[in-house]
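Entry:
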Amino acid sequence: MDEPRSRPSRPVFPSRPEGSSPYVTSAIGLEETEGRLRARKSSLFMRTVVWVTGMICLAFLLGSLVQAWSNSQLMQRLAVTQQQTQQLQAQHDRLAQQAKYYQDPAVIEREARQMGYVRRGEHLVIIVGANDSSQQKSGSSAKTAQPDNFWQEWWNIFFGNS
């Protein structure tokens, strides 16, 4: 009924498999088994996977650092640009207010009269005060005095009447 279970027998490894080398390790039975070869290959694969994963992580880390530095530089440029924009907006507001001020007809007339302009049909009258009359007399007396010679005229031009 119950059949005796047969135990799996251990694999028998020849002392020297075909194609193996006759070194000392094989002579004393220490040659590498298939399991050890598989383990070594697996270990090499795992080391390769770890190294590749490490390199990928390092690349992501460096990329993140570069992106953070780039963002920092952009934020600084943004702050400077916003400050310039505020200054230009303030200047624009001042100029707009000044333009509105100078559009008033009363301001235009006052500025024009200060520059000596008159309206059509008006005559410009200059009133000479008491102080101005003394300067006018000295100017007319200078015109009446005739210089003695050519050099005296140059002397009077540069150094005044003496």
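The mean pLDDT is 78.
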